[in-house]
Each structure stands twice: as C-alpha cells, then as structure tokens.
Write the structure tokens for this entry.
Amino acid sequence: MTTPAAATAAFPSRPAPGELVLRERPLRPGTDAHTLSRFADDRWDLTPGLFEAHAKALSLDFTTVPSAYTSTVKHVVWLWINPPESMPSYYRASSSRPAVRTVATYFQSLRSFAHWADARAADSLHRLTSADLDDFAAHVRATGLPHGTGEDLLAVVVRLWSLRELLPPGDRLPAAAPWRGELIADILGTRRDPSGENRTQRVHPDTMTALLSWALRFIELFADDITAAFGEFKAICVRTPSGRAAGLSPMPAPRAPGERMKDLERLLDRYRRRSLPLPGKSGPDGILRVNYSHIARRIDVISLIQSPHLVRAVDAAGLPVADGSPLFAPITAGLDGVPWLPGPITYEQAPQMARHLSTACFIVIAYLSGMRPGEALNLQRGCARRDSNTGLTLIHGQHFKGVRDTAGRHIPQGEERPDPWVVVEPVARAVTVLERLHNAELLFPTTLNIDGRATAASLYQRAGKARTDSNASADINAFITWVNDYCTAHRRPDPIPPDPARPAISSSRLRRTLAWFIVRKPRGLVAAAVQYGHVRVQMTLGYSGTYASGFPDELVFEQWLARLDELAEAREHLAAAEHVSGPAADRYRHRVAAAARFAGRVLRIRRDAATLLANPDLMVYPGTGMTCVLDPARAACRLAGDEHSSRRTPDLDDCRPTCLNIARTDRDIAIVRAQADRLRNIVDDPLAPPIRNQRELHELARLQGILAEHDQQEP
C-alpha cells in the first residue's frame, strides 16, 4: 500500500466546465479540436486518444453514475487521464499515467463503487467510514465474483484513496488506509492467477486444418476472379445516387439521345456475346423484372425509366433476365477440374466475395505468422519486403503492447517493431492479394465493411481505419458459413467442421492454435508437416521467434503438454507388456515410469514449462523407427539449444545408428520392419543397378540386425 504524499500543486477544486478531457494526452492525427469532449459533458469521447487503427470507439457515459457522485467521479477520472507530476502511485501500477483504455476500465469499477455507496444513503465520499469500506469488501467477497473482478473493485478504492490530497475535502475517503493496508488477495481469500497464462482455447485440429485449406484456396485459386469482379463492382457502385451525392462520381455529361442509345446497344451486344442474362430483381409482388437502374449505371445515365425509348430497346433485346446482376468478369479458376463457380459473380455478390477474400488473407497472415490480431489489423501497404541478403520475406509493422517511454509511461502511438516478422511464402502472397484488392493504406480497412449493402457510401466511408478484433472474428465465422454452404450446394466432401469446444472462431484463437500445430505436426500429412516445420524455422529467425513477442512461450507450453501426452501413451504401452530394445532400453523404461510424477504439475509461468522440459526424466524424444532417450554426454548427433540455452534437444534428422541414446519400442520396430520390407523388394529386383543394389543390401542388413536384436531380447 502506498501512502499518498502531500501534493506540491494541489487541486482543491474541480476542473472548469470547459476544460478539455484529453488535455494532457497526445491525439490521433487529424482530430478536430472543436469536437473534443469537455469536463461538463455528460459523455466523454476518448477515441481521439487511441492510436491503434483497429481500436473501437471509446467513451464514458456519466449519466450512468448516481447523480450525487457524478461530479466526484468526473474529477477522479479526469485526474487519471491528466495526472499532475505529483500524482501518487497507483495500486499495482507500473506508471502514474494509465493508458486511455485502462482509465475506461477504472471508470467501470469506480461507477460500481459509487452505486454501492449511493445505496447506503451516503451522499458524498467523505461520509464513508473505515467500517463502511470493510462492509464494501465483505459485499464484494459475498457476491462470488471472479477473483479478477473482485480485485478490480477493491483496487479502485485504493486508487481513489491515494488521490485524497488532490480532491476537495468533500470527495475524500477516510484518512486511514482502506482495510488497514491489508492485501486485497488476503481480503478476498483468493489470489489472481500469477501465471497470466493464456486460457484462450485452441481451435480443434480438424477445424483449423480445413479453415486454413479453404483460406489458401481463396488466395491461390479464387483471388484473381474475385479481384476482377470487385473492381468491376466498384466502377459501377460509384454511379449510384449515394455515390454521386458523396462526390465519388460526377454527374454524367449531357449526351444526345442517339449517343445513349449507341452505348446501350453496345452493352446489350456484350450481354449477347457473353451469353449472359440481363440484370434483374424481384419486386414486392415477387415477379422478376429487369433491373433498369443497374443498366443505367452501366451506361452512365441517371435513369433509364425517364427515357422510354431506352427501356423499349432493353425489352426488345429478347434476352433472359437473371435474379441478380451478373458481372462481365469471367470465372477462370477451377477446383477439382471444374470451374469453382458455375457462372459469373454478380454485382450483389461481389462485395461479399471481396470480404471473404480479405478474411482468407487475414487468416493466413495472422495464423502463419503468429501475430497478435491487433498487430495484423494494423499492417499497412508495402509491409512485406524481401531481404536481398538472406532471401527471407519480412513483414514490418507497428506494435502497441508494452511500448513505454524512458519514464515508464505507455506510449499510445506505439512504435515500429524493431525486428520484423520473418514469414513463409503464403503470408507474402496474402499481402500481395490485399494490395491488389483495394487502394487503402491499411491492409484490412473498414472500406470493405459493407455488411451486405452494396452502397458507395458504406464502401468508401471511414477510409484509413482498420477492422476491429470483433469485425475480424465475425468475418471468420461468416467465411466458414459461406464455405459450408458452398460445399452443400456443390456436394463437396470437405466442409469446415465445427469446433466441438466452441463453434465460434475468434481471431485471438489463431495464434494460440499455431503453437499446437507446430509442436504436433499432423502425422501422415507430409506437406503439412514440412509446412509447419518451415513456419517454425522462419519464426525462430525473426521477431516472432524472440521472447519479446511471447510466442516461444506458447511453443514451450505446447511442447510440455505434448511431452506429457507422449509419455502417458508410453506408460500405457509398457503396462501392456510392450518390449523395448536398444542400448538405452533400461533408461527408457526408467524415465517413462519416473515421468508419472509430473502429471498434474501446476505451471505458474510458461518458463516453468521450459525448466521442466530440461529435466532428464522428460528427455524422451520419439523419432522415426527409434526413440531418443537423451543423455547429452553420449549423444552422437549435434545438439540444438534454445534461445537462452536452458535446455538442449537432439537433432532427430541427424540420428546416428551407433548412438547410445537409442531405444526401440514395438511401435518403432513396426516402422523398421516396414522399411526392411520395402528394401527387400528393391534388392530382389534383378534390373536394379549394381551400385544401388549394394547400397540397399547394406542398409537391409543393418535393419535386419536391429529386428533380430529386438526379437532376441524379447522375453
């Protein structure tokens, strides 16, 4: 508990009604100073103090605070936003100036405390006694709230008490420290999880595999068709009434009736040559009619209805009418030998398909790079660059989490990441697709956030702002719905199955899932195993592989879980009388039995997992046709170390047959036996070249020796 020191510059009175709320805060570029919130306002808009391109609007509504406490709460929140140099230390705070979003969190807890005080008929804070605060603590404890919520409610009281010398006497809590300085964890009887462990659920492997597969299909197969259709859509979209009103397209220049008729005839001829129906839409009566408005936009006239001779020409064309407005952009991509769509994308479908393509790019970028969702959403055009010296593809971007100045204060503007991500080729390809899809500076702008409405205003407004985390999550689930509807319509056997734990896929789950896939490469899927191995290597080379990103902690935690699963499976096989041979057979049996004591171990921080993985009893590494029971002193391979050299691991791709760390289980021997059978077929081939025959005979003899040794040692 920190006792508030006497302020050198006290604030006994409240700020003036016209005082700016964000007076001491940096503002987002382009902010209109005339729109900034003032102290007297009932709602304070804090959005100008947010710099993340994907940030949601943020405001504080003081009409939700009891009227007796409105002025006090405003004053306290204003001090949190604009702390003086003599601001006392906050409870568990690393800086005397919290981030704007943190202030909003404090406000919620302070509002709850004000409602509790108001219910006790206390019309000001100075009327509350130490006994009242004890009652508040008992109230919080009795509500059964999660520990984090209860701690926030009590912590805001400590923060409020620490401001006593900066508040008028009527707004001050009792002089004695709340709860006599007792720790909040002791008051609540529980403690906040000290690990800060990421409890975000992984996406089920079946779901994630299918989701990534379809995202890559959109990028590698469908992107050209969708981009062309969306480009055509935008050219027409700006000619809508809302587009012209917004100044996105000028009013059409005066033309002679004959000129407009020629344009219409050329358009109708284009429909004929492409064997496309005319655009149509159903009226209130359900009857399908020609969409004359769409045709008018095509030939750049205000209205076709106002020109009866043009309407008669359309009706006389004798062309069929579609339910929708087909675009001229052709379908060029195929899927399993047939066009992926039976007909062209329509004007109505184009913005939705562009959104799905953008979402596919987000999935690939966020997932295969290990970025946090906000980091991916803040990426800008030109972020992908190839290093000519190494040949690696680098992604440059901003980050905001944990960015502080020399005084320890949060820097809301963030900063350019000092080390870029090193990414695999599909990520770079996704960036290129996005840069072709639109002209916005941000890769994921809200310009595509049209919510199913093909209007120019919704397409072009808010340019320069990124989608939010919730937008991205909603887009992922809309993408899954489209894919599954597509599979149903085309009788495809590869839909995206729902996640049994949580059907809705949020953007935050992608990063968590990647660590699982890297550690546990899908067996039997060679391409996937190679790809995930490549992703891991690339991350190790770049920023996302350093501890500053937090991603290696995700990996080591998944390695810990995978190791426990492997050893638990090994115990089951030994209990079922599985035979083990090889020079390290006794050590294998000992370590598998000893590893049982680690089951159920609580890891307070992820580094605990790294420490436990370095325990000799857990150094059992399944390979192909062998199991490494690592003793570094006996290893014949070149050992690899992690970033901090806290543990060393074997190179299973460089395993030497004479190594004393090798043990072979019945499962390993089954693989060796299959290898021997394959070589036996090669050796028996009379047409095999002599040099190859001798080489394979030597390897076959080695494998047969391994099999004979295993069978001889079997009890």
Remarks:
- The longest helix spans residues 205-237.
- Residues 33-188 form one domain.
- The mean pLDDT is 80.
